[in-house]
Amino acid sequence: MRASKSVQEMPPVSEKRSELTAAVLKEPQNVILDNLQLPQPKQGEVRIKLEGSGVCASNIPVWEGRDWFDYPITAGEPGHEGWGIVDAVGEGVENLKKGDRVTALTYNAYATHDIAKEESVVKLPDSLDGKPFPGEPLGCAMNIFNRSDIQKGQKVAIVGSGFLGTLLIQLAKSAGAEVIAISRREFSLETAKKAGADHLIQMNDHYEIIEKVKELTNQNFCERVIECTGKEWPLNLSIELTGERGKLIVAGFHQDGMRNVNVQMLNWRGIDMISAHERDPQKYIAGIEAAIEAVEAGKMDPFPLFTHHFALEEMEEAYKHLTERPEGFIKALIINQPR
Questions:
Q1: What are the beta bridge partners of residue 255?
Q2: Can you tell me the distance from the alpha carbon of 250 to that of 325, in angstroms, rounded to the nearest whole number?
Q3: Taking the complete model, does pTM exceed 0.85, yes or no?
Q4: Nearest-angstrom CA–CA distance, 289 and 280
């Protein structure tokens, strides 16, 4: 087995042409780079030379460390937002060829290369040439939007205006909704305003937020509320902001334990509570295809939200930005240098 070196000791990625280089979480908050044999695609698979990958908030627990994770984590994990160029094609692949620019559902994308099944790959149109396109989170946003069933003229509250929340603001506005953005950071609220939010409320005092939304909705609260934080308090706040027979869409990824929720309020108001997470890969692929259409149609513009770029050698810094969320941070991308 090849010995791994620290990020600081590794030679530049471009020096190793017969190998892939991948980031490895050796232990919590300790990333190394490892050079591995370049894999060959099997039947029905392609290999993608990755241009980059998005860095997802779902990575935070494995970065920080939890008792249930085993370290070191598999090379390239938990990266799953990659895009790039097909550079090898396995037998039986019919609709992809070398040189196609694609985004894909892969799970080792913090690397220079990854393998994908043909059915998990989406070709990118010429209109996106030269632009980063982490398909998985954009497809996720589209699937959440479609599950939300937002109609023209509805009042929609979006709780949490990070990357996902801002995309949903854009999509809700494209559907003709009146959008209330609720977020903790001033910078996030400024971003929400640029995305088209009609009203901005800082996420501080629980009851003050409820009164403000009550006032904005003529005492009726919102027909749709989308919770994007993955935290217990904002989830219960979101229940309070949903009107009678309204829909509460849980978009936040609640991954760190049980939740106590206000079932009495859900019952009393007859609220439909929808967990808008998908597990069927083909649902994700459909979402990615819809995201491409939405970007081309001007209904969604993710590019200003990619606020920070890091090289693979800077993976630890990317994780730190993800957890600390410095001023101006929305979404980080890992960008691989051309080889």
A1: none
A2: 22
A3: yes
A4: 15
